[in-house]
## 1
Amino acid sequence: MVFSRTRQLRTTKRLTGDRKGDHYPFSLQFYQLPPTENISLTEFETFAIERLKLLKSVENFGVSYLKGSLEYNAKLESELRKLKFVCLAPNDEIDDKVYDIRRKDHISHFILRLAYCQSEDLRRWFIQQEMDLFKFRFNLLPKEKVQEFLRFNDLEYVAISGEEKDLLQHDLMNSTFGLSTAKLEDCEFYKVPFQAALDLVRPRKVFLSKGFAFIPHKDIVTLILNDFRTRLSKALALSARSLPVVQSDERLQPLLSHLRPYNMTSNVGRTRIPMYRQSFELSSKSFPLCMRQLHKSLREHHHLRHGGRMQYGLFLKGIGLTLEQALQFWKLEFTKGKVDSEKFDKTYSYSIRHNYGKEGKRTDYTPYSCMKIILSNPPSQGDYHGCPFRHSDPELLKQKLQSFKVSSTGINQILDLVKGMHFQLACQKYFELTHNVDDCGFSLNHPNQYFAESQKLLTGGRDVKKEQAPMESSQANPPSQVTSSLSSSTNVTSTQSEEMEDLEQILSEY
Amino acid sequence: MDLSVYEPASLPDLLPLYYRRLFPFYQYYRWLNYGGVVKNYFPNREFSFTLKDDIYVRYQSFSNMSELEKEMQKMNPYKIDIGAVYSHKPSLHNSVKSGTFQAQEKELVFDIDMTDYDDVRRCCSSADICNKCWTLMTIAIRILDRALYEDFGFQHRLWVYSGRRGVHCWVCDESARKLSQAERSAVAEYLTVVKGGEETIKKVQLSDPIHPLIRKSLKIIERYFEEYALLGQDILENKQCWDKVLSLVPEAVRENLLRDFQKARSSVDRWERLKKSLGPLELKKGANSAKEIMLQYCYPRLDINVSKGVNHLLKSPFSVHPKTGRISVPIDVRKLESFDPFAVPTISMMCSELDNVSTIEEDQADANEGEPDVKRRTRDYKRTSLAPYVKTFEQFLDKLDQSRKGEMLLKSDLKKEF
């Protein structure tokens, strides 16, 4: 039955060899069935590497540009072309070339599933990139093809009746951007449990009633993506279970493990840089704005709320503060305020020890990346954490930059970037302006990277000793190692309390 | 000395009495057991106790009501928190294979804390509350309760006074208990309107069209705004406070308004002028300023992190607040306007109420000796000011039972068809 249906849709006469037109009728796929053919090991490897490259680009573009913007789309499209994951099918005909590209799309996706199914982090990363890629491709699909594609993949949503629509008219219009009464007539709405459309529920872009979301046709991609995510996530969990079988294959095992450790987030969070007594002024300059803000507010209030303690505490850990130093640092500051020493030990020291992997599930936590700071846990009343470029009023940001003596042209450049939602680029600009360089020569994605790059510049790269441990193995990296490297490089022979003074001095801003 | 006035130092003496004679174990178990429909639902539930000197014990769990009762009477916790239902008994969490011990279900909870309103209330700050600012909690409950019911379809919402400066909500529908972390955060974010920390002045930005949630919430705020904000808090009383409000309107009208404000006599008058001056801005940016100000001053501020996590702990109903001695009591939403946080019984108040009756009935005591504990406790709390709150709780439980029965009937009907 399936065969006859698709045959009506497609002309397949041009295909040669084993190629079958009904395999890949569309320019994008739901990846429901794994490939069953035999492929060579070389092909296996090239496919996988190229898809990995593609997904990394998807991630990078998503960070540098607003997803769905013209720039983002253009970049992604050229990347797809460059890596040969897309090809125009003229007259909707599937020739050998088109077929081969779609086959590669299919097979490479399933290879990466094997490489990325084994840990929660890997799975999350993979799902995110695949979803962004899917969304991009879905939006390119011509309107008339959408229904066909949905039917082909058994994704059918039932629209609400005219009466129900009339009844809810006002609420539906007030929930949907740019929908006039006239348009409402033609617009279909699909009624689904709100859990199926979280991306629309979260920003209130959909009407909710009694637990159901009413999705306008133009937002149907949200539903499809939700389905895509659910299925992919289930499939990855299943693959993880059959992993031992794959790993016992000695031909595949080295290939897969080669693909697995994705290093794109690099090791910045783990770079430990020794701090120098004389470099106190340099150090405060090396703090990105978010950390400067947290430090300042900690100084003023002798307190930071949880979000701030996490963001700042882990940053300090990342630049080399040992557990003992961290405990002393926070205690000194907090006890200047309302918290007495006993309360500090009871209430706050646990979470600091927790950050260093000494309590609870004993994970050695890594400092937050810019993405994490920008996207998750936005600051609310009483909070000073977050990204100053993302979470400040432009007016306040401007004042702050003025107080740091940033030139007014510089401030305008930064504010323009902020307006375009390029928060990391704005921060990068801030780096360039405060360090007097034209081009910082790196793409910023981590506060600790900011610190490291700044140190590199300020000390002329002369004696910046980096102790780099890759992200993955860092779990096993005992903090004691860091202590030794720190003390050996600073030649600290003093007692603990004097060290604390050093630290204080290093961290005092002005 | 008046024994009914709460003194934190007396807590260790009062707690044993409270847990022995007053704590409504029967109703409490009835709640968390959810009809015993799901196997091990109660035994796999995490409780955590805060003991004397802030000693915090996590992962407590109890197989049944009598074990819970015995343990609580033994440990006399200063504070009780409720956590998630786990895959295994929480008390055994160290003995199961790591990674397999996971939080599976929990009520969807909300925590609203008066401290988060410090920038918009003039009467008190931090942990202090008064009858003036309590209106903020009333508004919060009205708005969220409507949205949880009408928008999300949740039937069983238990509102509880936290004992000091805020309120909690426990959404107990089966579907709410099963929500994943992502789903919980989506609900919480949908409900969050006031955004931004200390670095943000304007915390509410409306976009056109205005979403039904906001429209309906504004309707509720309108009912309280004049009385609460303009008269009670007097948010436009003097220059210092109206400057704060003016920083939220478009610059174009700011100067004129400033002049207007100096001429006007009262907050109500100034608010009228503000609304009028925004009128001509129709359809342009800033036309919603008045609405945005109302939302920034009155819309509920959620501690979103509490709602997000399945495994997040929240103070239990009927736990004592160690600082105030007040009991965390359920709030009857139908009589919300008359709920007074200062009328909520403290542990010392109830214990002395208990004392008063027992001295009167001393002579009858012998006759009661043989009575079972549960029965005596029922009678005990009924003689204190805790009684009406337990009743509210029981009504909530009855409703839970009813809909559970309804569902089971439906299910068995469906089965018969085959």
## 2
Amino acid sequence: MRDRCQECPLPHVNLKLGPGLSELSVARGSGKGSSSQQTVVATRAGILNHSSNRSKWWVEGNSRRYVPAPQESVIGVVSGRSGENWRVDIGAAHPASLDGLAFEGATKRNRPNLKVGSVLYARVSLAHKDMEPELECFDAQTRKADGFGELKGGFVTHCSLQMSRLLLDPKHFLLPLLGSRFPLDVAVGLNGRIWVSTKEAKQTIAVVRCVEAVDPDGGGMDEVSVKKFLGEMEL
Amino acid sequence: MRPPSPSIPEKEFVYQALKQSLRLDGRNHLDARTPTLDFGPDLGWVECGYGKTRVIAYVEAKMTKPPPERPLEGIITIHSEISPMASVDYEPGRPSEEEITITRMLDKILRRSDAIDKESLCIVAGERVWHLRLTIHCLADAGNMLDCACLAGIVAFKHFRKPEVEVIGDEVIVHSAAERSPVPLAIHHMPFCVTFAFFPDPSMRPVLDPSLLEQRLSTGLMSIALNAQREICVLQKAGGVPIAAEEVLQLIDVAVTVAKDLDKFVQMRLREDWETRKIEIM
């Protein structure tokens, strides 16, 4: 993996390293004339991916434990409050903190009414290995909600991290297939949590079972089998 | 850190679905997950799975001197380890209430129900007996770990064979498996554990073999350990929810059918495994 990174002839000027890669600076020689060279190493096992212009590189693995990375959308559960901030469980090693004012239209007087156990769709705004991750429920520039915020009703199901990335791929068959059967609202968090809301309970159950069946970590079912599987359920 | 209890939407949805007699994995409320049994290369090594719940159990035997108060009986000990690997709920070092319940139930069901004949484990009275050690490792917890661990434990005992021993005078000769085929343990009956979960609202009927979410949201669990001959070994009801006597009897009837099915399944799997272990003697 390291070789392939070095292979690319001209490193992009705006080289950005995503999850799974980190930069190591290795000092060469000592005393006078020492030079430091930047080396990129993989910090987790998986497939190395890059954007079309080779400016962004990241590693996609199929782990179950979520490691927060900046700008990723996640689904969290409020687990308490500490002062001005909410403590949110996002399935990572440490709870994340969410500023009570990081919502659209929130002011000191008017802040969202969250309870312990509320489910949130949020973006990771800060993820540093030595600090608690931080979340926000709005776009910091426009101060608009942009789809983030509290998720009311519905149900939260868990899947592998690989599955959550697959579902975010617009070319993946599952969500369009389910959407053609019945109307549904879905929010996919990259931390392996999926929020589903449908009109009827059995439709939500169908979504939960399909996600579990398609998950490469479990069933790994393909499109034809899922259609059959859906047909067997009485919807 | 204790795990957070299920979120509000999860709780409301599970209750709403249960009121319509729907379960998240598509089962009926009195349907159990189909167990899986995998045997290892050694005799007495079993991996048991209930859906995504996985437990490994293995039996080892060694010879020891019996305690003076019971010179004619062998010793059985059960070691259960529930590590944080199973679920984030479990912490090393400090056993939670749930862990203690599982450990004590395993002890009651497998050891104190006298499923295994202890006197047949005696080699020389007061001098040498077999000491059986059952180790249970919980690998993943997706609900109802007690039933899974219990099935793994009893199947491990059933699968295990101890070396043949010959006593001539004061001398004890242990024959290796190559010399004489090892002998199975004397097992009087096979207890199976069946767990039901109860919910606060009477419109939600009790469910068999609860999943992790159902178990967390339940107000009480009832575990019945019984064998296929309809003999109840242990009945434990945890949590404070009151149940009518008729309901308990109805659930026991359900448990009897489950135990009978499990008994057939275990016998079939053991026979299948035994077929693969035949060695031709030249």
